[in-house]
Amino acid sequence: MQPYPKTLVLFSYDWDQTEFSRLQAQWPQAHSGFDLFTFPSNARLAWYDMDRFANLSIAKAKLLGAKAVVSNHEQFGALNAALIAEKMGLHGTSVQAVLACQHKLYAREILQQVAPEANLEFARLDAKYGGPVPDGLTYPAYVKPIKAAFSVLACQVNKQAELHQHTRFAPWELWVIRHLVEPFERLLKERLPQAGTAHSLMLETPTEGDQYCLDGYVFDGRLKRLGVVDSVMYPGTDAFMRFDYPSRLPLHIQQRAEDVARRFFEAIGFDHGLFNMEFFYNPKTDKLTVIEFNPRMASQFSDLYRRVQGINLHEIALALGHGIDPSHLPQQLPTAQCASSFVYRSFDPKVEVAMPSAASKAQFWEQFPDALLFEFPKLAGQIERDFKWLRSYRYGIVHLGGANPEDLRARCEKTSSLLGWKAPYAEFDQHPFMNRKSVPTADKAASPLKRSQEK
User: What is the pLDDT of residue 437?
Assistant: First the structure.
């Protein structure tokens, strides 16, 4: 087959860098953007402007003959790709739809209109960054930024003192937060002013349940469900330990999640592009609760789908960028019956994490040539920041496939031993999926978040 026209890929690293590079021959690419997690690349945050970046990227695209633009980057890429596609008249997700998804408070307001049964109580935290915490709130509550990525600064707080401590920021932290949010804020004021500022935190009623991710895309206004991935947490935390595919969730619950996503995306005008919807399902109450909508692919899952289903989410992204129906793409032969993304974390800032030696990695690759390995070594100051913002340090990720769950676990334990890391299988046997849990209360009628709104 002849190669397709060139695609401009924005903010590509980690999984995107790996997966897009595999497709380079058939889908030639040009790249633009920077890595927010690597110095000196991330120094560009100091002068980053979304409109200026879009115009420079458009000039690059025209110079190199790119006929499409894609990005799976949550913080800047998805919105920039939408803006560039609009300016160049290319296929892409609408700017307003991306803004509506990424403004987590506004997304909840839309969800309340179209699928209230899948929503929870929510409110803006009426306080400036570092300002006093309002009185009159009832705890526990789940606090998170209105615009953020990677679960930064999202956690459950059980009393006012905890919320106060959580919202204290050093000057450099405030600088980073403002520079991460301000490019979004400027476009938001122009395109979706009714959403209100994104320079704020929000509160949600804590909920119970197992966590899942619905993956799919919309083409020509029609939503297509690709699958559901199970999110397994480290016990007693809201930190991801593993992502398992295929899901254990019953098909009729997956279809219910698909229906909620369809109603939401129709309401915000999301008619083209990949998406990922995170949600809880509590089998005891049969309650499905949306966590958030992501207007882009969950890049970490692409390899899992490729191993188990023979479909390539990154190729789907490229096809959508060129206006090609992804259902016409050829499928590969699956290589596994199940697959997982294993996340290695430290929860003790005093414990030094050792990266595998060259000899260990040589053995690893010799015995598991089909694996994916990502290492995230960091300096002491960077690890300290991770504990402040994420309450853990993610130091490695491994992807593997298996003939069945037992085989997959055995392979994981072997690879973990070779790397000198503890296998991410620490969950409770009776209840393998854990997430943020609410404290049961006798009276559910009086919502603490409603009280804060009324106040």
Answer: 37
196, 134 Cβ separation under 8 angstroms: no
The whole model's pTM is what?
A: 0.90
**CA distance from start to end of the chain:** 64
pLDDT in tens, 263-272: 999 999 999 9
Nearest to 10 by CA among 66, 65, 94, 87: 66
- Name the residue among 135, 266, 205 with its Cα closest to residue 445: 205
Instruction: Look at the domain 107-206+446-454 and name its fold.
Output: Dna Ligase; domain 1 (3.30.1490)
Q: CATH class for domain 210-419?
A: alpha beta
Structure tokens at 252: 């009729």
Q: What is the mean pLDDT of residues 278-307?
A: 97
CB atoms within 10 A of CB 96: 18
Would you give the distance in Å from CA 55 to the centre of its chain? 26
Pair type for strands 372-375 and 393-402: antiparallel
Residue 60: exposure state from Cβ atoms within 10 A (0-12, 13-18, ≥19): middle
In whole angstroms, what is the distance from residue 211 CA to residue 433 CA? 7
- Please give the Cα distance from 101 to 144 (Å, whole number): 15
Is residue 94 a contact partner of residue 86, using CB atoms and an 8 Å limit? yes
Encoded tokens for 145: 């930024």
Q: What span, in angstroms and rounded, lies between the C-alpha atoms of 292 and 352?
A: 34
Q: What is the pLDDT of residues 11-20, one digit of tens each?
A: 998 899 999 9
Residue position matching structure tokens 């998804």: 101
Residues in the chain: 455
Where are the extended beta strands (E) located within 178-296? Answer: 201-204, 210-219, 222-233, 240-245, 273-282, 287-294
HSE toward the beta carbon, residue 403, CA cutoff 13 A: 2
231: three-class secondary structure by DSSP = strand
Which residue in this structure is represented by tokens 């046997």? 429
The whole-number pLDDT of residue 171 equals 86
For 401-426, write each residue's pLDDT tens digit: 999 999 999 999 999 999 999 999 97
Domain ranges of the chain: 7-90, 107-206+446-454, 210-419
